């Protein structure tokens, strides 16, 4: 029996605040999976369906195949590859495994002291599945007691979201530890400023195109699933992942990408992630961490940025002991029970606050961001002169590029020269921030102010760039480079170019949508993958033909796009060859802009290919497209696909009421174009 995703509302594990930035105007009615077990065929449709729908239904019934057949015998490699039907299916398997992990964590009552009982009393059925119950037309107004129980359901959802958020914070820490251990495995050294001045040097310009740099994966090298999830999200930010790999000297690791053959072998048809004892032992030996996220310590070791005192900060201060339940009965009629405080002051909570036992300074996330900046600054000033994050890639192309006009230096390396110059004592001012001489609560805003003083002084440009500067005006590229450098630290104190906690949460929205569509178990799974690969190629062709436009992919395009990014070197060569730039993947676009550009993308796609861009991709409609459609489609308008018309006739029929799909556009998602 296959596992199946509970059909929950957004107030459960999916956070509306995170989902909203990906929601298009058309997506509110996106198809949801029904509650039928996935190992049974779709239900029979009645005679009310039109003849074409009956034809497709019969085709579904006649396909007496296993629902796991599409992904049981995939042909895969552990080397970098362009996206294929098999890699897309393997990718879906990974997403399903991640979703099951999320379900298990969210429903683990008592994990990290977060108890379902903190939400208060409620119907046992609703406690198990806390969806909002729709009020019937003639149903009387709920009593105060019922309203309180409804509020308790919402609180229960928040508690389960909190467990998942803590799990992700711990997973990112585990990924950081694994990343550092990889630096001992790979022979390459970290990037230096000198490397960035040698044209074609393999440590810089030649880093993304070195085909000899291949890592030979073994099964005992695989990380735990939670770490794999964070790595997956990291790769879905292509420029950030490339920059981080270059700064760490992980060329072989970056070039090889996701070892699909090993990943597929580790995930069974029930989406359990299973590895050998040797793999688990190797993980613990290399990282010092437990294989299971939940088995790691309840505290995080942190060194004070000021006095260097080591301290143990709890991951959360929201937890309660097992005997937390109050002996005093809850007054349901009072209606004034305060919800549990889930903000917290732990390392994985939203409001970190911990007093250093050595110097008394309050450890906050803002302070840790400053400490990260100061630490990177010291590496720049050190003997190896490691460049600052955000100054490695050309902002315009996303490529590692040496100066096109030597001896003039590259514009995107300007922040390094500024910080090293100590112009107007900027070096001293920034380094002093973690001494707390003048400011007990420094933030990145203090760093910004110190740098802005320079940017407002035109005469300082020639001082920094040298006698070759012909103008006192700072080039636009250099200003962008400064902003790019600063972006690495705003609300981010991790080892990486972006806050991976937030990125994993955002990516979770896409993961759940993929699981709800459940193409993996569809009888037409392989045909669906073929179509979305074709659509992805067309998407990139439109991008090539419309430079400067923001394109918004649908869910099916996004799956192929994401799969391509799992082989970074292949994706780099493809986009640079086709578009002369390394295409990034931005998931934080303004919703109004997203909606406008989705409409533009849809119109352009239809004009270029004569097909509807956003079609329903439920099992039924995908099976229709997989079958041989009769000449019926010829009478339809050339601006609409014949499959779309036939699908529309089904969705408006009585038979459609038996299924939970609807003819709505797939979810849009932005790119950086």
Automatic annotation (TrEMBL):
Polar residues bias: start-end ranges: 13-28
Signal sequence residues: none
Compositional bias of kind Basic and acidic residues: 133-147
Domain of life according to the entry: Eukaryota
UniProt-annotated stretches for the region Disordered: 1-49, 123-147
Protein name: Glycine-rich domain-containing protein 1
Organism this protein belongs to: Parathielavia appendiculata
